[in-house]
């Protein structure tokens, strides 16, 4: 009795004959051809020829779809090619993964059902209604009424009558200041303002500017700053001489200190 590769002994067979079945294909598990009876001395040759034919067909088939690198790295069977194409994930694994993804999406807020969305929005609305941010119409009306009452009573928001009185008083003070100030006084005041601006005091509020102008007008009306042309010429000459000496001999730090001193003296004169 001869036993070759792929041969299988069956009961009731004689020594002269064996039943040979083809080897199962690695690419298609369980796919075999029908059993055939061959003489015992030809069993090995038949099995070998069958294996070679099957291998040749497989190589020809896979060679058409696989590159040489993939054939050498992953084998040359259709099963290996399919496994490499879809990864190591089997259909059962794919179904499980998709079910888990669907469950996570259903739990998250991004992919929620209309019922879940309605429930979440209702809860958000309830929390907003309870919180301070959501004011009912009655509360809003009460708050606006209180704000209007405080505005009419407060100093920041004046009534139309009070606003008109304030503007009339401002206009009267401005007219008095313009009438009482000579061109020389106006020039001197502007020079003082320029000195203050150089010293860093140019950032004044409108209220401060009005106070300074009123003080200038009062001093001008009293005649303190009204000098004769001769006095004015002497003062300007002295100022020019001091400026020439100071520019030639003073450092930037001394210049800054001098400008600060001038600004302080100008502010003291206004006070």
What can be said about this structure in brief?
With about 270 residues, the protein is mostly helical. It has helices at about 45-65, 70-75, 80-85, 90-105, 115-130, 135-155, 160-180, 185-200, 205-220, 230-250, 250-270; strands at about 5-10, 15-20, 35-40. Helix 7 (about 160-180) crosses helix 9 and helix 8 (about 185-200) packs across helix 11.
Features:
single chain; mainly alpha; 4 domains; 4% strand; elongated; disordered N terminus
Description:
The protein is mainly alpha-helical and 271 residues long. The chain folds into 4 domains: 7-86, no CATH class; 89-134, no CATH class; 137-180, no CATH class; 181-270, no CATH class. The protein is 67% helix and 4% strand. It has 11 helices and 3 strands. It has helices spanning 43-63, 68-74, 78-86, 91-107, 114-130, 137-153, 160-180, 183-198, 206-222, 229-249, 252-270; strands spanning 7-8, 17-20, 36-39. It has a 3-stranded antiparallel beta sheet with strand order 1-2-3, covered by helices on one side. A hairpin with an 8-residue loop joins strand 1 and strand 2. Helix 7 packs across helix 9 (206-222) and helix 8 (183-198) packs across helix 11. The longest helix has 21 residues, at 43-63. The protein is elongated and about 145 Å long. Residues 1-18, 29-36 and 70-74 have low confidence and may be disordered.
Helix and strand layout, with pairings?
Layout: E1 7-8, E2 17-20, E3 36-39, H1 43-63, H2 68-74, H3 78-86, H4 91-107, H5 114-130, H6 137-153, H7 160-180, H8 183-198, H9 206-222, H10 229-249, H11 252-270
Antiparallel strand pairs: 1-2, 2-3
